[in-house]
Amino acid sequence: MSVQNPHIDYAAMAGKWKRCRDVAAGQDAVHAAQEEYLPKLKEQTPTDYEAYVTRAIFYNATWRTIAGLLGMLYRKPPTIDVPESVKPLLEDVTMNGVPFHVFSQKVAEESLSVGRVGVLVDYPMASPEMTLADAAELNLRPTMCMYKSESIINWRTRRVNNKTVLCLVVLAFKYVEQVDEFEEKSENRFRVLDLDPTTGDTYRMRVFTVDDKGNNILLETSVPLMGSKPLDFIPFTFIGVDDITPDVDEPPLIDLVDLNLSHYRTTADYEHGCHFTGLPTAVVSGYSPKTDDEGRPIEKLYIGSQSAWVFTDPNAKASFLEFTGQGLGALERNLDRKEAQMAILGARMLEGQKKAAEAAETAGIHRSGENSVLSSAAQTLSIGLKKSLETFCLWGGANAEVTFELNRDFFPMPMDYRMLKELVNALQKGGISFETFFENLKKGEVISSTITMEEEQTRIKMGPGPVPAT
Fold first, then answer.
1. What is the largest CA-CA distance in the chain?
2. What is the pLDDT, as a whole number, of residue 334?
3. How many helices (H) and strands (E) does the chain have?
4. What does the pLDDT read at residue 296?
5. What is the pLDDT of residue 27?
């Protein structure tokens, strides 16, 4: 079997992933897909169809929704706590300048866009005798690499000691080779991660290519070591919408994506109708132009204020044929209806500004569906990225507790005066601890979420003291 053969679930979901990618990418990608998203009209020539596509405007509600959801997730910075020795490594987890907090945003964007992403934690090959000091001197360090859903082409699990463990992952990637100073060439390669049964299920990594005849060509094999020993697990984490298993989830915004494409097709019909009905057509009846000996017209009628049409036949008439029907009105109403549906499905930024202010409780109820999906995504992302971070820290020589938690407070709800007064009163009477008081001030956005209790206490000590009431 070829290494490039995809998992059956991969093949079933590839079309949906492509729709999500194209729609999120915007108008150029949707236009480039041509008839895949906008069928030709009957008997439409290639030139006419090209004009039909060009006139169609794609209103990208999907990307605006993704950007909005990302903004809610990262409205407050995630909580990250790792050993001190690992913190410098988080400034560049990919070895090309991407810090961990930016890396986590890229992973979150993938999860929201297509509902599936993977993170591989890796470490350069090293000898079993190498110490942490040797590794630091050679700048050997763990790295993270994100793989999009389309690159994770195959996977397999099995039961080991009454637990389901990942035993195979196949990752497709482009290998780029420098030919000379100005030219590069690339080829498709496949990174196979598995638990080798011949060595007691130790982790190994192999790289394959496929020749012109479809044969697998093994290029390299490596056995990564952690603390001079092979790993007994694959350091790859799947991150879906609801869990971190290899199971393929439906893209969370697929309904919005499909409705966005339907809106695009309606827009194409509307613009097509405006093009042909918005330009009046000159109509002349009862007039025969002069012709030459072969019957060809030698007289032309020009439209414009500097041209006059003079007809000798008193029954001749000239007029403009203009659109007077209601067909375009139906298309306009259809566009409005679909925009309202997209707002319900998640693109709330499409809704017009309400004349009256919406009560906070009402707004919260309206957004509860979004909150539930976003809360699930935030929880799954937190679990998956924490798992990757734990492996990263272990490979960095720090076996300690790790914390990573994405923000769940998606909407700003500043603490009002009455709540603040009640908290101060409870603190003064000994009803709550200072720690509880401080945490509530952070949740109520009275104090920045990035400030620790110790930092705030230091600020208080260095301040001018109590301020007299006015």
1. 112
2. 80
3. 13, 14
4. 80
5. 95
Q: How far apart are CA 106 and CA 98, in angstroms?
A: 10
Which contiguous run of DSSP H or E holds residue 320?
A: strand 317-321
Burial of 324 (0-12, 13-18, 19+ CB in 10 A): exposed
Span 114-142, pLDDT tens digits: 999 999 999 987 655 555 555 555 567 89
> Which of 349, 342, 343 lies closest to 264, judged by CA?
342
Contact 126, 135 (CB under 8 A): yes
pLDDT > 90: percent of the chain: 48
Give the tokens for residue 415.
């603490």
170 burial (CB, 10 Å; 0-12 / 13-18 / 19+) is buried
Question: 283-297 pLDDT, tens per residue?
Answer: 888 777 777 777 787
3-state secondary structure of 146: strand
pTM, 2 dp: 0.78
Q: Could you tell me which residues come within 8 angstroms of residue 314 by beta carbon, excluding any fewer than 6 positions away?
A: none
Phi/psi at 330 (5° precision): -65, -40
Which residues, in sequence order, are CB contacts of 301 under 8 Å at separation 6+?
282, 284, 289, 307, 309
C-alpha closest to that of 284 among 321, 317, 323: 317
| pLDDT given for residue 193 in this prediction | 98
> Per-domain residue ranges for the chain?
8-148+250-279+324-413, 281-289+297-321, 414-465
DSSP 356: S
Q: How many residues does the chain have?
A: 470
- DSSP type of residue 170: E
DSSP conformation letters of 73-105: HTSSPPEEE--TTTGGGGG-SSSSS--HHHHHH
The pLDDT of residue 28 is 96
Report the alpha-carbon distance of residue 170 to residue 206 in Å, rounded: 10
Bridge partners for 152 per DSSP = 171
